[in-house]
Amino acid sequence: MARTAADPIEAGRDALKRHAWDEAYRILTEADRAGALTGEGLELLGEAAYWSAHPDETVEYLERAYAAYLDEGNRPEAAMAALRVAEQHGMRMAMPQAQGWAAKAIRLASEDATWPVHGWLAWMGGLMAWFGADFEGAISNYDRALEFAERTDDRDLHAMSLHDKGHALILLGRVAEGMPMLDEAMTSVVSGELEPHTAGYVYCGMIGVCSKLGDYGRAAEWTNATLRWCERQSVPAFPGVCRIHQAELMRLRGSFERAEAEARLACEELPRFNFFSGLGPANYEIAEVRRRMGDLEEAEEAYRRAHEFGFAPQPGLSLLLLAQGNGASAAAGIRQALADAAGNRCLQVRLRAAQVEIAVAADDLDTANVATDELDELVAGYNSPALDAIAAGARGTVRLAQGDPEGALADLRRAQRAWRQIEAPYEVAELGLQLARAHRTLGDEDAARMEAKAARDSFERLGARPAAQRAASLLGELTTAAGPTERVGRTFMFTDIVRSTDLVEVIGDEAWEDLLRWHDATLRSLFASHGGEVGHPTGDGFFVAFPDPGSAIGAAIAVQRALVEHRREHGFALQVRIGVHHGEATRRGVDYGGGEVHKAARIAALAEGGEILASRETVDAADGVAASGPREVTLKGFARPVAVVSVAWR
After folding, report:
1. Which of 23, 61, 114, 305 is most buried per CB count within 10 Å?
2. CA distances to 74, 83, 255, 482, 507 from 266, in Å
């Protein structure tokens, strides 16, 4: 129920404190129509308009508040209103108007050095120095802003300045000094001390820093804490900004399609709050997903959109040029990006890593060596597993190109271990492909095939087509070198996850990713314990070859029982269907092909979730297996019907 007060300004202020945005907007709009609003009331109406999804009206009300304050003789508040108008124009990327209103604020502030606006002008000076990559100068301005904030008890100014000072220190490589400042600023967010727009600014910056450092654990912790605060306070969770960071984390964890969906939703939501500068990072995320999935045309378009919104699309754009076969432009783009990133050590890490990849592709090992030396120096002060992994992977790549496969193995393994702990499957697979090349150079064909096959399987599960093709090509070379094909008898199993969409909606994306990792690890372990050999990937499931029917059916039963046990312990589990068939197939290296393999896949496609469906002849060849009565089915691509039975495993 809406609260009322004799004074509409007081009623509007009360509604804003309760985050009853629509109520505040209604009360203050009605008062404005009646001509009852002062400068203060108009400023409150501007805030209510923003949070009640009327952001286009915000500038109008703030401009009117500025004029009203002047008429009232309240020049300190007029200066603050001018600064707020400048901020709104800056969010819209209307820079001439932003600069004009900032000049008004500065001119008014010159009348009295004690006015609170000076603290915010110092903060803005830090921001301008930041944009010019003068991080030392930015820190000096933030220190002045912090002094004003403490003197005037301005918690919003204090939190933003403390956050930005910490961020600048981190970009200078002084992580131990800077990170505690960001953590302190975030405690002000989740404790409810700050205005919503300040909370959004600090949260967005904190997650951006975590991304630069590869500190994804800290990012997840603060994201969860912030979202809980948003729910308690009825704040709309800065949805567009949140989605950009969620998209980046999803991409890192290998959920490419979901990452792109989140980034595209951000592109829809950000303009509603006139936060156009966020459209650059959102489009960059779309481009990064498209590039990995092999849609180079759409990736190029998304990088272009990111650039249009003032976001430098590097190193992704240069890596795209490399994928398009334009190595010279890729190298030039990285050189320019490095020149533009002077002083930003975090960005330089990723740019140098891309420079290594581009230089090695061009056989420019001198440039690659210099870049790896720079990388080692850049990451030395960060104590970040992700940045250390980037540097180690780059060093291993260069050593392999220089003909030092033994030295490369140590670096590549160290990098892969770190990425595996971070749970970044694409990066793990990329390093696996490099490990395969190193093993091959050393003459260890078996180890090379194992690494290449694991990389191919992972890339195919991720939908990363170009990388999967590279891995498949290397695996084909290794398999051909392994010797001629042979005909062998095996029992083939296909598994597949069914009805996954409903479960994702119930448990959420993060729990779903954890469940998938449990599924993959558990099934692989059960297959191995029954003598199974995992073959080529099949999307959401596995293709496995067993030495005999009994081993295959025993593994299938163990899988279904493990899923039931997980459901009993956790309240939910995946539904998996399994098909089993014994026959003769062509073996080449570690893979199998032929009609009987296809028959096993067709049988699996007929199974229901939680069912083990097998050809009758396969079950008959296994001792003591209970099953339903046989039924004949027609399989696509096969002229004769096949008798199948459902294995009783419960």
Report:
1. 61
2. 39, 27, 17, 49, 22
The answer to whether 179 touches 167, Cβ cutoff 8 Å, is no
Q: Which residues pair with 496 in a beta bridge?
A: 577
Return the closest-CA partner of residue 207 out of 231, 258, 236, 243: 243
3-state secondary structure string, 379-405?
Answer: HCCCCCHHHHHHHHHHHHHHHHHCCCH
Residue bearing tokens 């995320």 = 285
Q: What is the mean pLDDT of residues 310-316?
A: 94
For residues 6 and 21, the answer to whether their CB atoms sit within 8 Å is no
Structural domains of the chain, with CATH: 394-483 (1.25.40.10), 488-646 (3.30.70.1230)
Q: Is the pLDDT of residue 521 over 70?
A: yes
Most confident of 85-99, 386-400, 502-516: 386-400
Q: What are the pLDDT digits (tens) for 151-185?
A: 999 999 999 999 999 999 988 888 889 999 999 99
The β-bridge partners of 99 are none
Which helix (H) or strand (E) segment holds residue 124: the answer is: helix 117-131
Q: Does residue 4 surpass a pLDDT of 50?
A: no
Q: Nearest CA to 349 among 175, 151, 124?
A: 175
Q: How many helices (H) and strands (E) does the chain have?
A: 30, 8
* CA 235 vs CA 27, 97, 228, 612: distances in Å: 19, 29, 10, 48
Tell me which long-range contacts 371-379 makes (C-beta under 8 A, separation of at least 24): 372/398, 374/348, 375/349, 378/173, 378/345, 378/348, 378/349, 378/352, 379/349
Q: Which residues of 440-465 are buried (b: 16+ CB within 10 A; e: fewer)?
A: bbeebbebbbbbbbbbbbbbbbbbbe
The answer to whether residues 19 and 199 touch, using CB atoms and an 8 Å cutoff, is no
CB under 8 A, 24+ apart: contacts of 629-638: 633/603, 633/606, 635/599, 635/602, 635/603, 636/602, 637/598, 637/602, 638/595, 638/599, 638/602
Angle at 252 between CA 249 and CA 256, to 5 degrees: 90
What residues contact 562, with CB distance under 8 A and at least 6 apart? 522, 526
In whole angstroms, what is the distance from residue 339 CA to residue 334 CA?
Answer: 9
User: For 478-490, how does the pLDDT look when each residue is reduced to its tens digit (9 = 90+)?
Assistant: 766 555 678 899 9
- Backbone torsion region of residue 575, taken as left when φ is above 0, otherwise alpha when ψ lies between -120 and 50, otherwise beta: beta
Which among 343, 417, 427 has a CA at the least distance from the CA of 385? 417
Tell me: pLDDT of 94 over 90: no
Q: Is the bond leading into 76 cis (omega within 30 degrees of zero)?
A: no
Do residues 419 and 404 lie in contact, with contact meaning Cβ atoms separated by under 8 Å? no
Q: Do the beta carbons of residue 71 and residue 94 sit within 8 Å?
A: no
Q: Beta strands 543-546 and 591-593: pairing type?
A: unpaired
Which of 374, 309, 377, 385 is CA-nearest to residue 338?
Answer: 374
pLDDT the model gives residue 256: 92
Least confident segment among 16-25, 173-182, 510-519: 510-519
Q: What's the whole-model pTM score?
A: 0.62
Cα–Cα distance measured from residue 270 to residue 289, given in angstroms and rounded to the nearest whole number:
20
Distance CA 594, CA 149 (A): 74
* pLDDT attached to residue 31: 93
- Please choose, from the candidates 464, 460, 432, 459, the residue with its C-alpha nearest in 3D space to the C-alpha of residue 448: 432
